[in-house]
Amino acid sequence: MALERTLSIIKPDAVKKNVIGEILSRFEKAGLKIVAAKMKQLTKEEAEGFYAVHKERGFFNDLVAFMISGPVMIQALEGEGAVLKNRDLMGATNPKEAAPGTIRADFADSIDANAVHGSDSLENAANEIKYFFNDSDVVSH
Ligand code: UDP
């Protein structure tokens, strides 16, 4: 497996539940390193741009409203097979279908308030990291 970086967002529902630390801890315990991080209140434009691929979908406006409903914690994660590893830790998009012990099974309430975002491919990961971080914001350690 190759060393990869992926973008992770702890969404407003999980920030409100005060479980940032518990979620970050799961990444670290799985061997992923946090190589960039920031708390941020997204603007409507930032959320729309980030989810532009979904703009024709019926849930788009609700998704944007949800993503700006409170601050998010954004991090780049690095590790062997980081993209898939993070997706495995997250669990299925719909928490009702998420495997036991995954972040969404444990912390998410519904498909629209589902605790975390994670890049779904290496190519998207690179673009999503660039969307939120300058090269100099991302460190190796
Ligand atoms: N989403 C939603 N309703 C749906 C499908 C998706 O609200 O029917 C939201 C949900 O928050 C999801 C995000 O849109 O996390 C992006 O959808 P995607 O299919 O990319 O899922 P993910 O990659 O986040 O698992």
Identify the notable features of this structure and list them briefly.
alpha+beta; binds uridine-5'-diphosphate; Alpha-Beta Plaits; 7 helices; 141 residues; 20% strand; 4 strands; 39% helix; four-stranded antiparallel beta sheet
The mean pLDDT is 98
Order the strands across the largest sheet as they lie in space: 2-3-1-4
Number of domains: 1
The count of strands amounts to 4
- Main pleated sheet: 4 strands, antiparallel
The N- to C-terminal Cα distance equals: 19 Å
What is the molecular shape? globular
Q: Give the percentage of residues in beta strands.
A: 15-25%
Assembly category:
single chain
State the CATH architecture.
2-Layer Sandwich
Unreliable spans: none
Provide the gyration radius in Å.
14 Å
Helical residues, percent: 25-40%
Assigned CATH superfamily: Nucleoside diphosphate kinase-like domain
User: What is the CATH T-level topology?
Assistant: Alpha-Beta Plaits
CATH class: Alpha Beta
* Tally of contiguous helical segments: 7
Q: In brief, what are we looking at here?
A:
By secondary structure, this protein is an alpha+beta fold. The protein has helices at residues 12-16, 20-29, 44-50, 60-67, 82-90, 103-107, 122-132, and strands at 3-10, 33-40, 72-80, 116-118.
Question: What do you see in this structure?
Answer:
It catalyses: a 2'-deoxyribonucleoside 5'-diphosphate + ATP = a 2'-deoxyribonucleoside 5'-triphosphate + ADP; a ribonucleoside 5'-diphosphate + ATP = a ribonucleoside 5'-triphosphate + ADP. Keywords: ATP-binding, Cytoplasm, Kinase, Magnesium, Metal-binding, Nucleotide metabolism, Nucleotide-binding, Phosphoprotein, Transferase. It comes from Luteibacter rhizovicinus DSM 16549. By secondary structure, the chain is an alpha+beta fold. It has one domain (3-134): Nucleoside diphosphate kinase-like domain (Alpha-Beta Plaits, 2-Layer Sandwich), CATH 3.30.70.141. Helices cover 39% and strands 20% of the residues. The protein has seven helices and four strands. It is globular, with a radius of gyration of 14 Å. Uridine-5'-diphosphate is lined by residues 59, 63, 93, 111-112, 114, 117, 120.
